[in-house]
Fold each of these.
Amino acid sequence: MTQSLRLNSQFPGAGEPPSSRRGSTLRPSSPPPRPVSASLVSPPFGPSLRLSSFWPGPVATRLMPTDADSDSVETVRRLGRLVARSAAMQQVFDLVERLARTDVTVTLIGETGTGKDVIAHAIHERGQQPDGPFVVFDCGAVAPNLMESELLGHERGAFTGATNMHEGAFERANGGTLFLDEIGELPLDLQPRLLRALENRKVRRVGGKQDRPIDVRVVAATNRDLRNEVSAGRFRQDLYFRLAAAVVPVPALRERIEDLEHLVPRLLSDLGRGDCRSRRAPSRACAHDPVLPVQHHGARARHQRGREPRVAP
């Protein structure tokens, strides 16, 4: 999608030719797309890769379409298993494409059920090691007393019941991508070891004496405001800075309702249902089907997936 850079509207008159500021007639530019909700995010300190419209601040430029690009914003785009037409998701797609080609740690921020796991897999597929393993580690689904062993591994005899050596998630993801889901749930006492692994690219198993080198791309996700977690003392500031180097806010479905007619057929296809009512162009009919109402208190893609089996064949 061809895009042009225009100076941020928060600096009135910046970047306009002198004639335009003296009142000469120029074709007005198209209104900017609706920005992604910034309720969960803020600009991280230090250098970062992000679209400036994701949050306010003294940013010099903003990437957004002009009149010449307005048609492309309406184009349905695909990124892995993602499909979208909304301007909000177009921005997310652009940012993901850019970040995927680097090895920087990426953090996805958004409500539960907005598809952060799908975006993480798309980053892996477009990254530098797409043929490597993609390992998911859910920080909210592992018992706290087992989390260190499951993440870093353990040696035989490291603790009672450790009858065999166990490779942790970092080692299993070696040569690929490790997706740390719900990173805000990581216990405080384990956060220094995660930070050390990210900085040194080495891990040491529980009960081990040797550091093992790893080549892993890390993508994290959270539905929490990590700044508040830092302020409350539940999340280390240095780890937050490390994770905030590249932040991708993921909008809820209620903020991109125009994507629903394209998401429903894809989700039905994943469920093996084909289309909903007929074999002829089901997408718009599915989107407005009264059996699939979008509840604005949640409006999550995962919520819609859970409702779809109710559709009559």
Note: Residues 167 and 237 are 28 Å apart (CA to CA).
Amino acid sequence: MTAPASDNLATSLREAMLSFVGSVTIITTHWQDRDYAMPASAVNSVSFSPPSMLVCVNRTALIWQALSQGADFAINLIGPEQRHILDHCIATTGAARFSCGIWRRITHLPAILENATAALTCRQMATMCVGSHQIIVGEVSAIHHKTSRSKLAYVDREFYEI
């Protein structure tokens, strides 16, 4: 196997990433009396002590405006039964993303999707800019979890129930 030319690295990486299986989430935040949401698969755990998660957000995404100001965020893990909510979030922008599904809001905190497989509220603790994206690490401050055998995964540009 030969290494691709440097101008093809981004394309080769994009193709290789199609083989990675990712969880399906909707990231939410609340900043300056406005709710933001974004579908995301670039989410991962960081540590159990302190309990922390990371999200990667393109700096052109609307949600980045709020996150770049240090806003808390929530990670809503989407199961197969919420697929229609995910599809709605993908197809819309702004406040319209919250018009499908039941979202629980507590003043000045990110919205939590009712009946999500899991919802983790996080306080920002570190950020790092890498290329077009911002890596945001948050300490988990609250967890809502339901037992569900079915999960939704993203691989090869498709969603699968596993």
Note: Residues 29-146 form a domain with the Pnp Oxidase; Chain A fold (CATH 2.30.110.10).
Amino acid sequence: MRQKTRKAKTVKKPPIRVNLAGEGELPDVKINQNLKHILEPDWISSRYGKSITKIQEEGHQFVISDNLHLPFRSNAIDEVYVASISLDSVTFLGPTPRTSEILRILKTGGLFILNPLDPGAGRKVYRKVQGTLRRMQS
């Protein structure tokens, strides 16, 4: 008697999404990277006026690091978001996220979304192709 072979079901993993300089403003992006100033007791988010405790209660996680050396493996992130801050510059808080770091952590074929909440600010979507970011049609 022949045995039937079963095909293993492929379980599709949800995309790994990271919001650089994030304050929990993107509901579908639960990993927010930010600088250590958000740990100060009187810190509140600039967009919604919430404390880090409140944002964490809503299911968001925070990774505290500088922007020059993001603590993510190379080619590990499916989608990277940056909302309402400049790239490759310096503010009173220090350096902002670097394009080179975004390229390093983003998987090939991954998406980089700039200004996801502000269509008026020029929401831009890029895909990582052959080690570079290529702008996609909006």
Note: Residues 17-132 form one domain.
Amino acid sequence: MQSSSSIAAVAPIVFLALGIGAVNWIDLARGQKRSSVAYPVSLVITLVLAVWFGLNAANGETHYVFGNMAVIDPMANVLASFCALTLFATLVYTRRYLADRDMYAGEFYMFALFTLGGQVVMITGNNFLVLYLGLELLSLASFERIVRISHEVLHPGRTGIGPAAVRHVDAVRRDRLAGAGQGV
């Protein structure tokens, strides 16, 4: 169990963190009137990570980093590559869904990359504290979505989400009220 101080072992994870920041800042700088470039940037990031993790898995080396808090071995690299490829497929398939519901924004892609980061942190974790940190990163997008829906229910008309999502929340609220009146 040799501890490694090589930054090359964690370079894909650092690249993912920088990619999350880049997607966030690019989307903030573009303004509301222009189309988002977060989608193609996120696709490139996930493909680069899938290949990078795959090449690291083929290398066959095992690294213990951050004071043995994380282990980066071939199995972790294969799993991380699979997660990146799965996110790539998810991003491709959700594009039309998001566009149809006026939710096509960079924040979705930023939170999707956060979930990939949480998955990679959980895969490489070597103790429970790191696993918990990965779980928190993974669930960050869910928390954000719950807060947005709750905010819309409590403050109708004051929201930054698209009109289709507002109609969906209104329909859910009407269904709940109708069900409450029927004793269901």
Note: The mean pLDDT is 82.
